Amino acid sequence: MIDLHYWTTPNGHKITLFLEEAGLAYKIIPVNIGAGDQFQPEFLKIAPNNRIPAIVDHAPADGGAPISLFESGAILLYLADKTGQFIPDTLRGRNQALQWLFWQMGGLGPMAGQNHHFNTYAVDKIPYAIDRYVRETGRLYGVLNKQLADHEFIAGDYSIADMACYPWIVPHERQEQDLAQFPHLMRWFSAIAQRPATQRAYALAEQINTAPSVSDEASRKILFDQNARTVK
Predict the structure, then answer these.
(1) Closest C-alpha among 142, 132, 125 to residue 111
(2) Which helix (H) or strand (E) segment is 3 a member of?
(3) Alpha carbon distance 180, 10 (integer Å)
(4) Total domain count for the chain?
(5) Cα 180 to chain center, whole Å?
């Protein structure tokens, strides 16, 4: 059994996509980030960066004590290695998938995240910041579109690279991106959306939360007023 500490964000969806595809037994432990659940001591023991998702695997492959992990990319890689699924088993194939996983973690996720922040959540609408992150998000869409021109999925077969990227493309309209401008990306996006595991993962999210994480001044303060002094 795997405990998944989760909230309905793109990074959270990555892990439910994998777990549903692999058919692993798991239990969701909701972490309402708008209410401050990520600062609870029991969560910080397994996720010291106070961010979701995190997992606890009660049946690790070495047969030892439970293993906890935070950071969505690290969790995807751990689960792929644990199950032997959704990562190529050749040297070149594995590293092809890993480089795109790291591309999402270091590029698509952070840039789209800043896009969301300045477009949707910032009290002061700063045109330079909005334009900067909308354009950079579009550039990254272009990079992914180019890769998908001659690949069915990002690294060949469906893999953790696709699971990492897909949830960050779901809010493309909020990111001011028109998928019609990226035909290979749109084809890929539609194919993943139609997978039964994807539909199960997102249906599950609807059961857990349908409200925005930032809904009032209190939640805004919880999410955006953090600094070195708030690290517990």
Answers:
(1) 132
(2) strand 2-6
(3) 22
(4) 2
(5) 23
The 8-class DSSP code of residue 107 comes to I
pLDDT in tens, 108-148: 999 999 999 999 999 999 999 999 999 999 999 999 999 99
Regarding whether 209 and 180 lie in a shared domain, the answer is no
In the numeric block, which tokens belong to residue 69? 């992990």
Nearest alpha carbon to residue 31 among 209, 216, 229: 209
Same domain, 63 and 128: no
Strands (E), 42-110: 54-57, 67-70
* Amino acid, res. 104: Q
**Under 8 Å between Cβ of 100 and 151:** no
d(CA 120, CA 167) in angstroms, rounded, equals 18
CA 163 to chain centre: 8
Which two three-digit tokens encode residue 160? 């953790």
Q: Write out the residue range of the structural domain in which residue 177 sits.
A: 91-194
pTM of the model: 0.96
